[in-house]
Amino acid sequence: MAKTITNYFEELRGTRVWRSVFRSGTGSSTLHRALAVQQNVFLHLFSTKVRTRMLSFSTTWYLGTLTFGTFLILVATGIPLMFYYHPSVPQAYADTKDLQFVVSSGLFLRNLHRWSAHAMVFLVFAHLFKVFYRGAYRPPREFNWVIGVILLLITLLLSYTGYLLPWDQLAFWAITVGSNIASAVPVMGNKVHFLMLGGNVVNANALLRFYVLHCMILPLVAILFVAVHFWRIRKDGGLYAHQSEPGRVAAEPVPAAAKGAQ
Amino acid sequence: MSEEKKNTPAEGGSGLGSQPGNEFDRRAFFVKLGLGSLSIAAAGTAAFSYQFLSPNVLYEPSPIVNAGKPENYAVDSVTMDVNAGIYLIHAQEGFFALSAVCTHLGCLTAWKPELGIIACPCHGSKFTRYGVKIEGPAPRPLPWLQTSISDEGDLMVDRSITIRPMQFVRV
Q1: Residues facing residue B95 across a β-bridge
Q2: 0.90 surpassed by complex ipTM
Q3: Using CB atoms, which residue from B55, B105, B122 is nearest to A198?
Q4: pTM (two decimals)
């Protein structure tokens, strides 16, 4: 049975349509496999070859991949939620309630969106700590660490802007407090507060601004930086491997005999 | 600017310039012109964006609140208007209005009649009924708001004007 499916798949890969889409050819040689990665618009960000050890769970705990996974869930659940949600003061709270109690699968989508959001913040921090304690931030990966910090901030901003959208008491006061913290910035604090809310209090303008930031601007910026983050893994020589790093050898303690010879 | 470049020999020039240095000068000039124009355009875009994002008209509630007739407020009473975010207080000395917005991070405080204090639910700041801070984290006392009697005899509170404490309105 498995043989038959493989044969069908091989046949499919030989068709003219398939070959017009995937131009790396039908072979299964190392070259063809490398080309399949290298010539794919999404996969070409990654290395064509990866050490098997790097794919083991213990190396990374898959924290980066899991974070990206939650991001994909958030996009996939967030877009359907937008079909029922109006970012306006009279409707926002009622729409949130409708999503919970009236819309088919609305409760599921909203809960999945919310839990994934919590999970993403947790995973981003876990990823950061794992990278830090493995020492994987060190050269030549320091720039990717910086990209990672930017992605952490974008994640927190996505979380913060999404918090206002249900337009309940918790949302309103959390954003009131949060935006007042922003006005503590020296000199330009009040201007930042005013621009952020589009007014002096959390109101219709603030709701709309947070909605646009949450659904358009921040996700697009996140996707941009995620692409750079992935691409940099390849450019920095793949995932960090503890034993094979050149810096590791130099860091070995000098033997006592060598010290005495000095 | 262009004088510094005069000494630099033109490299790969097309030979159209009358002097060897001219071709390079022209290119440097256009590069500077282009970068300068882009800088001006970028500054203009920044200014445009800032102005665009700052609303010129705000559809926010009026700062002036009509608190009704003074007779509605018993002596030694603290009455909160939740929508306006103010306290109307009738003390022995007279009427006054306090902002109910906590000076810490902008939460709405609440009057606790059993304790006789104003307390903030967010981070636990406490104030007396005169707005004086009892304990933090609020950095300042609750501001006193300008209160007056309208021609119709109603108490009017202007939330946009704060006054020095202990200025009572007597009816």
Answers
A1: B90, B169
A2: no
A3: B55
A4: 0.82
